[in-house]
């Protein structure tokens, strides 16, 4: 935030977005897998309650996009907190801050993914993996959630493409 009290959002290039997505898939997948191994019954209840609120909001004829975005983040971080890896959590938080302005583009746009409730299906499978204490299923569902949103954002063409094609070295 500047002295004039306005917020400046850095522009993101295609290659930066792809790199961050790759890192997120790996780190958030690791946190989710570990959470599936360690999750307590109380934490599972909390995660299910957040997921239920997310599903109820999504089911409305005119869901509150701000509420969906907040619940999405709350759900993800409730899961990551269960990994009991504070350094990993800090790294994930910094990635979310970096990618935050674009991460929920599809929800703001009301894209087909939103209409078809693709995100809800991914979250259902993440929660199911946690309930079953299945680190592979939970982390795979999380990776699919991230990659599905990333694929949509890349196809939407909202990122700077100047670096999308690497220059060829000329000798």
Please characterize this protein's 3D structure.
This protein is mostly helical and 171 residues long. It has a single domain (14-156), classed as GntR ligand-binding domain-like (Four Helix Bundle (Hemerythrin (Met), subunit A), Up-down Bundle). Helices cover 73% and strands 0% of the residues. The chain contains eight helices and no strands. Helix 1 (14-38) packs across helix 4 (86-103), helix 1 packs parallel to helix 7 (118-131) and helix 2 runs antiparallel to helix 3 (65-81). The longest helix is centred in the first third of the chain and has 25 residues, at 14-38. The radius of gyration is 17 Å and the shape is globular. InterPro entries: GntR_C (IPR011711), TF_FadR/GntR_C (IPR008920). Residues 19-148 form the GntR C-terminal domain. GO terms for molecular function: DNA binding.
Protein traits:
single chain; about 170 residues; mainly alpha; Four Helix Bundle (Hemerythrin (Met), subunit A); about 75% helix; about 0% strand; globular; DNA binding; transcription regulation
Structure summary, number of beta strands: 0
Distance between the termini: 44 Å
User: What is the overall silhouette?
Assistant: globular
- Poorly predicted runs: none
- The average pLDDT value, as a whole number, equals 86
Helix and strand run: HHHHHHHH
